[in-house]
Write a structure and sequence with these properties.
Aminopeptidase, alpha+beta, about 180 residues, disordered C terminus, four-stranded antiparallel sheet
Length: about 180
């Protein structure tokens, strides 16, 4: 799948080094469920869970590579939230590439993929209140507060967007979605 500036490729074993570096960074992991850097075994468990989700459900996380250089700038994808039927949007961008709109561009693309390719009718998202950038992305793709999405407890702000609301927003242009 592609956007104007990004190539989104399913996560693979070749991405282990990038994800290990990402998950070891205290700044990048402060808003993830663990709240801090992952240990070696936790990184292995994280990667295994990403591969298992793809194998089980046929979708999951994509690595984000800049078209202009091939540099990996982060990840974005859709996964079932904690073994539920809720499909949750996820994304993360490495330092040095934050603030360039890559998270928003990728979130729009994976939401479009979820609705048009996977046939989902609702997508969910969540962020801790301190993660203002992530909350802004969720709102910009058209998500609204949704207390029914309570998989993560009261430590996050829950959101959702329906296919109809998504269609009403002029959001994205993807190629190969």
């Amino acid at each position: 799948m592609q956007t104007d500036r990004l190539i989104l490729a399913p996560i693979s074993a070749n991405d282990h080094g990038f994800m290990a570096e990402f998950l070891s960074d205290s700044m990048l992991t402060r808003y993830l469920p663990k709240g801090g850097p992952y240990t070696g075994p936790e990184i292995e468990e994280y990667m295994a869970a990403r591969f298992e989700h793809w194998e089980t459900h046929g979708f999951g996380n994509f690595m984000l590579r800049k078209k202009s250089s091939g540099v990996t700038v982060g990840y974005a994808g859709l996964e079932h939230a904690r073994g539920t039927a809720f499909v949750d949007i996820r994304y993360g961008i490495v330092q040095g590439h934050c603030g360039n709109g890559f998270a928003l561009e990728a979130a729009r693309a994976v939401a479009g993929y979820g609705f048009t390719v996977l046939g989902l009718t609702t997508l969910y998202g969540a962020a801790v209140p301190e993660n203002e950038a992530s909350l802004a992305v969720l709102r910009k793709i058209g998500m609204a507060l949704d207390p029914a999405f309570d998989c993560y407890g009261d430590v996050v702000i829950p959101f959702s967007i329906t296919l109809d609301r998504f269609r009403d927003k002029p959001l994205f242009h993807t190629k190969g979605a």
